[in-house]
Amino acid sequence: MNREYKWTRVTQVENIPPLEGRAVTLQGIEVAIFNLRDRFVTIENQCPHKGGPLCDGIVSGTTVVCPLHGWRFDLDSGAAIRASLPACVATFPTRVEHGVVLVDMAAAQRVEARETAAENAAA
């Protein structure tokens, strides 16, 4: 299925240092945009456990650790990794064009809790 992306210009790439995240509110949703050095990714900014700001978490590879209680989230899928409960955050298509980070808020993706639980059990 082909769909037309609706890209929103957010910020210059240099405003998000490597291996860090920045919070921004787009269309009423607070998201966290992360610079993974080779690409940028965008997820919901609120941890579903206790509401921690994921943009302030420590980035390691393609995961971020919630700064409040240590839950880890995969930045590509939004799935919680080895969390005590199945949980996830939405992810949003992100790209860079002419040095500007763009996000498509209309194309949010969220893994199902069942999938997250199965992944956690296998890990």
Structural account:
With 123 residues, the protein is mostly beta strands. The chain has one domain: Rieske [2Fe-2S] iron-sulphur domain (Rieske Iron-sulfur Protein). 8% of the residues lie in helices and 36% in strands. The strands form three sheets. Strands 2-3-4-9 form a four-stranded antiparallel beta sheet, with no helix packed on it. The protein has a four-stranded antiparallel beta sheet with strand order 5-6-7-8. A hairpin with a 4-residue loop joins strand 3 and strand 4. The radius of gyration is 14 Å and the shape is globular. About 4% of the residues have low confidence.
CATH architecture: 3-layer Sandwich
Kindly state the number of beta strands. Answer: 11
Distance between the termini: 32 Å
Assign the CATH topology: Rieske Iron-sulfur Protein
Helix content: under 10%
- Poorly predicted spans: 114-118
Mean pLDDT: 89
Fourth-tier CATH superfamily name: Rieske [2Fe-2S] iron-sulphur domain
The count of helical stretches stands at 1
What characterizes the major β-sheet? 4 strands, antiparallel
Q: Strand content of the residues, in percent?
A: 35-45%
Decide which structural class fits the backbone.
Answer: mainly beta
The neighbouring-strand order within the major sheet is 2-3-4-9
Radius of gyration, in Å, reads 14 Å
CATH top level label: Mainly Beta
N-to-C SSE string, H for helix and E for strand: EEEEEEEEEEEH
Q: What global shape is seen? A: globular
Total of domains: 1
